[in-house]
Amino acid sequence: ASDLPDDVKEELIGKVDEIVNESKTEIDGETTKEDAAQAVDDAKREIEDAILDAEKEDVKSDLDEIAQNATDEIAASDRPDDVKEELIGKVDEIVNESKTEIDGAVSKEEAEQAVEDAKREIEDAILDAEKEDAKSDLDEIAQNAKDEINASDLPDDVKEELIGKVDEIVNGSKTEIDEATSKEEAEQVVEDAKKEIEETIANANKGEVEEPTLDSEKDEAKADLDEIAQNAKDEINASDLPEEEKTDLNGKIDAVIDEAKEIVDSATTKEDIEAALNGAKDELSSITSGITAEQPSDTRTLWPWLIVAIVISAALSGLFAWRHVKKLHGRGESVGVKSIVTIAVATILIFTVIVGISLLIFVMV
Prior knowledge:
365 residues, mainly alpha
């Protein structure tokens, strides 16, 4: 009742008969009911495996037919020979991988699913190649258009703008091609792009190149104002100014930008917009240029440290001299040259140590 070819059916039925006959011989030789039942189970499994193997071979034949049709389609196309060869190799690779999956299948349904998956992969591979063909056609159209533009007597700035428009059309069309689900859809995208490019060039030759609108100029100027304002704020915030000064300067920047944006909104010409932008840049530059001058001075003077050191030295020297003289008087001795020298040396040492310590602390602070 299967849809296998007649010769395969006949061969498979012969295989079933062969398994049955061998199993009956095996059953005749069994000595227990259990062994006879096991022979039946073994025969059933062999028959099922034989049918599954035949079904696998049948789906492999379907797969080969799909691959051959794809190969014929590729060979009949007008692609370069190296592209054809690469694509046919990809088809062979898909088929071989699918046959391996079929060999490992445990049911007819699983084997058939492997064929469906392979068919879809082959179709996708061919569609990808067709998309690349469409992109190549698009690149050729774009290059011809650019050559036509460059050879025209249009002004250089118009040529540059027009070539940019062609690139924009091409890039957008390639994205559409990537999303196409059929060869026809990809080819239609190319036709649409070609028509749009031709119309753009025709309009340019008639002096109808689209100029930036005043509104777009205003939007661009506002974006520039926001950018230069942020740069100025970053410079202020990165400085070591006190926080209140940073806040004050940032407020001034916001005021300048708000005023400039109002001028831009009310501008009636491109020149007015440029004047507002340049004026804001000058004001912001003036604000940020004063950052260094407004930074608080961190200079510390040395004189207070020296005065404190001298006072401490004098006090310690006086204390030493008083104790030394008192000690001499306690021993009944008078103050002589030796005592004066001792007091002088002690005073110098005390002064040197105290001043040295003061200088060290000053440097460290």
